[in-house]
Amino acid sequence: MLDTRPLLLGKGFPEIKREPLEVLQVNLGYKCNLSCTHCHVNAGPSRHEQMSRENVNAVLKYIRKNPVRTLDLTGGAPELNPSFKYLVVEARKLGVEIIDRCNLTILLESGFESLASFLADNKVVITASLPCYSEQNVEAQRGKGVYLDSISALKKLNSLGYGKDSDKKLNLVFNPDGINLPPEQSGLEKEYKSELHAQHGIVFNNLYTITNMPISRFGGMLLAKGLYDEYMSILKNSFQPENLATVMCRTLISVDYRGYVYDCDFNQMLGLHLLEHGDLRLHILDLVDRNVTGNQIKVGQHCFGCTAGQGSSCSGAMKN
């Protein structure tokens, strides 16, 4: 696969610094039951990297000693990690909000039939990828049969109170196809709610629009099709300086499956470690008794993806 990393490490993006931590985002592994074209992690069924129980306990130790509000679990399919349920149960005891970045289809896989009920019982927020409300567009990005499986999974979640009960939040994620920026979020959310309810009786809480990052699988596609320069021009020409104040990396730390820490999930995929002193690669245990507020954030050309247009974060657009 073609690699955009050497092209993204140049200068030109404004300097930004960390603010007090709110979100600990943990990648539990790159193994996934899907291989989506927009995936910046290059996850798939052939990947075997998984966070060990030792590193899961390191994450819990960090949460016990630091003011983490939200534990954001991602992958791959985070639910494929053998310690997923253990981490959810132990983190719930610590009073943090837990987000599961779910691809929906995992809820229908053999051996995972009780997963939806487990998530509901533990009041886990589900943030689920559904790149369109139409079957054709979803299958172009995620594969044949994924749309109908996703609809079945959403109906199952609705039956458990997700999208209906105040303590069972269900959010959907839109990723654009091709080299387009996401459309205006609130308007698209209304379309999603109208179409999904009319067609399938499905309800959900929020729609998050997220810009595709020019790294890993999506970045490789851009290079292969000769679209990289055009896409980067779109991102840079759409740069909005006011988005710098609310980029997610200011209040988030990303942890990879080995326990190493980064300023964000995208820096994780580019191997840009969170640095405190010199060129030291830090583990989550190295941060247990350290305050990184005020530290410089490592930036690159990919950061224009978070600041283009309405902005993009793990919670969707930063403005409407």
Q: Please, could you describe this protein's structure?
A:
By secondary structure, the protein is α/β, with parallel strands linked by helices. The protein has a single domain (5-307), classed as Aldolase class I (TIM Barrel). The chain has eleven helices and eight strands. It has helices spanning 5-8, 53-65, 84-93, 115-121, 135-142, 146-159, 185-200, 216-224, 228-237, 265-270, 304-307; strands spanning 23-27, 70-74, 97-102, 125-129, 170-174, 206-209, 252-255, 261-262. Strands 6-5-4-3-2-1-7-8 form an eight-stranded mixed sheet. Strand 2 (70-74), helix 3 and strand 3 form a beta-alpha-beta unit. The longest helix has 16 residues, at 185-200. It starts with a helix and ends in a 13-residue tail after the last helix. The mean pLDDT is 91.
Give the tags:
single chain; 320 residues; alpha/beta; TIM Barrel; 8-stranded mixed beta sheet; 8 strands; 32% helix; globular
Number of strands: 8
- Residue windows where pLDDT falls under 50 for at least 5 positions: none
- Radius of gyration over C-alpha positions, nearest whole angstrom: 19 Å
The secondary structure category is alpha/beta
Share of residues in strands: 5-15%
Supply the number of helical segments.
Answer: 11
Q: Biggest β-sheet: count, sense, barrel?
A: 8 strands, mixed
Helix content: 25-40%
**How many separate domains make up the residues?**
1
Strand order of the largest sheet: 6-5-4-3-2-1-7-8
CATH homologous group name: Aldolase class I
What is the string of SSEs from the N terminus onward?
A: HEHEHEHEHHEHEHHEEHH
